[in-house]
Write a structure and sequence with these properties.
The chain is mainly alpha-helical. The chain has 5 helices and no strands. The longest helix has 22 residues. The radius of gyration is 17 Å and the shape is elongated. It starts with a helix and ends with a helix.
Length: about 90
Amino acid sequence: MLFCAITNDTGYKSSAQNIYRSFKFRSQIVEEKFGEGTSDPAIFGQLIIDSGVTPEVADNLFKNIRLLPSRAKFRKQIERWAASALEEITESK
């Protein structure tokens, strides 16, 4: 939803960008707790795999952590989502 609002330049673009920035700012907490670079899902995931923690421990770790997709790494998918959202809006009118 955020990415569609930003990409489609809707009236909610500014709000969506502010929300995304707020989420990005929260990633600092992960880095403070687990180390530099761990806000990158690939690095954090590899850290969990390499640690060999039990599923129960991993579940507890992830209880308060959410994945924030990278706009740059998911550019193509975001463009498709945005185009699809625009299609749905125009079809419903």
